[in-house]
Design a protein that fits this description.
A 6-stranded antiparallel sheet has the order 4-3-2-1-5-6. The longest helix is centred in the N-terminal third of the chain and has 10 residues. The protein starts with a strand and ends with a strand. It contains 6 helices and 6 strands. The model has no long low-confidence stretch (mean pLDDT about 90). It is globular, with a radius of gyration of 13 Å. It is an alpha+beta fold. Helix content is about 35%, strand content about 25%. The protein has a single domain, classed as endopeptidase domain like (from Nostoc punctiforme) (endopeptidase fold (from Nostoc punctiforme), Alpha-Beta Complex), CATH 3.90.1720.10.
Length: about 140
């Protein structure tokens, strides 16, 4: 399964990078000409790849074992604001098991991530869980 690690200069991305000392602030699953992602204003959605690249001009393609169908099944689910808050304070018990932020969408689809741990991952964690891909 192909994923993309990304960041931009949006104030939320800058805050995440500073608070968590990370390179990337977002991770998505590639699904053909779309990506499956969790967006605060929309929940889990499919976004055209071209639109995603405009929103996130700094990105890196990666490959990891997984099933894109598991991410597709989450489209339409709400955004996990509690999980994002928990991640920011490293209190991983703070999360909504029926809602998803970006790392959960990718982690649930990944074969090498325990579903129950996906809410503890940061986008940068997927660097170690995946391999670089030239596109």
């Amino acid at each position: 399964m192909k994923i993309i690690l990304a960041t931009n200069q949006h104030e939320m991305s800058v805050a995440i990078r500073e608070k968590l000392n990370c390179k990337y602030t977002h991770v998505v699953v590639v699904d053909g000409d779309n990506v499956i992602e969790a967006r605060p204003e929309a929940g889990v959605v499919k976004t055209p790849l071209k639109v995603f690249k405009r929103l996130y001009p700094t990105y890196e393609y990666r490959e990891m074992p997984g099933d894109v169908n598991k991410s597709r099944a989450l489209v339409g689910k709400p955004y996990d604001y509690k999980g994002l808050l928990g991640m920011g304070f490293k209190v991983y018990s703070i999360q909504d098991p029926k809602a998803y932020f970006c790392c959960e969408v990718v982690g649930i689809a990944a074969d090498n991530v325990d579903d129950s741990m996906s809410h503890t991952l940061l986008p940068d964690d997927f660097i170690e869980l995946s391999t670089a891909v030239c596109v």
